[in-house]
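Give me structure tokens for this 666-residue protein.
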Amino acid sequence: MCGIAGIVNLTDRHDPPSVDLLRSMVSAIQHRGPDEYGLFRDHRVGMGHARLSIIDISTGQQPLSNADDTLWIVFNGEIFNFIELREELEKIGYTFRTHSDTEVIVHAYEAWGVDCFSRFNGQWALALWDTVENTLILSRDRIGVRPLYVREHDGRVWFASEVKAIFADPSVPREIDVQGLAQTFMYWASIAPTSLYKGIEELRPGSTRMYNGDGSRKDIQYWRPSYNETRFSSVGEATEALRDKLKRATQLRVLRSDVPVGSYLSGGLDSSLTARFGREAKEGTFQTFSIRFEDPEFDETEYQRAMARTIDSNHQEVLVRKSDIARVFPDVVRHTERPILRTAPAPLYLLSRLVRDTGIKAVLTGEGADEMLGGYDLFREAKIRMFWSHQPGSHIRPLLFDRLYPYLARSPQQAKGMALEFWKRGLDRADQPGFSHEPRWSTTGSLGRFFSAEARHLLKSAPPPNYLETLPLEFHRWDPLAQAQFIEVETLLSSYLISSQGDRMLMAHSVEGRFPFLDADVMDFCNGLPAQYKLNGLNEKFILKKVADGIIPDQIINRPKQPYRAPDAIAFVGTEAPEYVDELFADSALRSAGLFDVEAVRGLYAKCKDRAASPEAVFSNTDNMGLVGILSTQLVVDQFINHNGGVPGKRIEFTTFIDRVHTSTH
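Here you go.
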């Protein structure tokens, strides 16, 4: 895994990008690839690369070109089917001088043009520069595992894996886009192409963008999730097929690496299966890594260790306390580059540090299984709400929520009544897109009351893009579960989970994440499964449990679902809270940022402090998200708007240096 950055002059009005500026841009993302640094420059373009050496360590340096040096690439990611593609390209006459997947991309583009990207099975963000046509091609993988940001201004294009590399150019203005902020406080993240920063776009997952020599631009969406049901003779047939595809996907991610690959173990079914298949893929020592929590409410150690014993892995753990979360939170936000409504990324930041300290550069994770196979409570809640909507006056149908949350049956009537009122919202809109997500969005959307009068005014005059207006035409033909899955993939998975909890926390310590459940073949297969194979009654991930039967301990298969969570507001308002929290919640800091209503935030902060001092220390979902979201936004403003957040600690030196402007020392 790597980091890429560059500047392209779409016209000849500008001077060539300077080597010093390109060095600063690559330096800003050196954590993504600390092994080697490369640069290509001509009169129109400067492209930089920070390399994390995983495939073809000896000859895979970048930037890399085709045979006649007319096509240049910088690439962040892995193409897991590159061997098969290479064989196909060799048959039609292409020769290779390296063993890298990067060179396969170059020749694939020569052979098939932009259609090549739909042939790739992998995770990537890349830039190709055609020196003959003066054309820039940007592309991003299907789910957006690898990030890619773009800025256009005055006939120039900046691109980079992270915003901090674009901000390394002092000419780039820094300003929060309240549209991106509003989306964050609705969907948990801004949704591409909207970003948190005014003037900077995030390239859509599953898309390619071309900047042509005449200055024109073309966007191509080569993939979006689609749910066209496949017929199977039985659930047994589908189970065997899914098992084979998951094994194959995991093998690709273990064997197609020139360095050892470890695995995360959360204690749940998804990571357990991934680790099991990873263990089977290659002989020798297999490393697994887990998070332990000091607070038993969040801890899953029992299940993690049971799985580690089952596969005889070399298992390591990191113990996380509330004080640890608060201590590393500024670093976490420096890497997410955006506000987050939960602290869940912080323990993963600590876990990836453990992985790197162990000497492992790549890990498998179970991310994506819940989205592909109907694993979230949200899907089950939506199914009950849909059933309830047919008889909204029924007092029997909502009792199904007791099966999801047994504690509700034992709750005081008032508490249970409040919960049911929450799920009852929008029952009259069961036929509308977004029905499945309306309760969640109504909760997060209510956080908008903390916005300042100025921010609310800006949003009233220019509201953020409505995600539901971007749904594909065939959306209404899918079953309700598929509709909910589609929205979950495009909003939460792509925009938040795989980014703030995934790529950014892993790459903070130069670790590559590999996700078998997000394999192209696995995703397409899962999207073709009948709904009842995924959510059978209220039994989530029905088919995956069948895949796991006999190879995963029953105590893991049959355990109640426990979403990955971490201590939230309590980490910042208890007796061990660090000083920076008070500083960022100070009236002066809030007024300076200008994004939040000072009195409203002051009230929330005081309320959370009072709760922390009480014996129960129980925080509502809204208070947790509000405090963490506002704190992380204030950190973003402090780090990226007021200061040069994350831009280089040390000067890097280019080991690959191709300068067509003039010969230069480096």
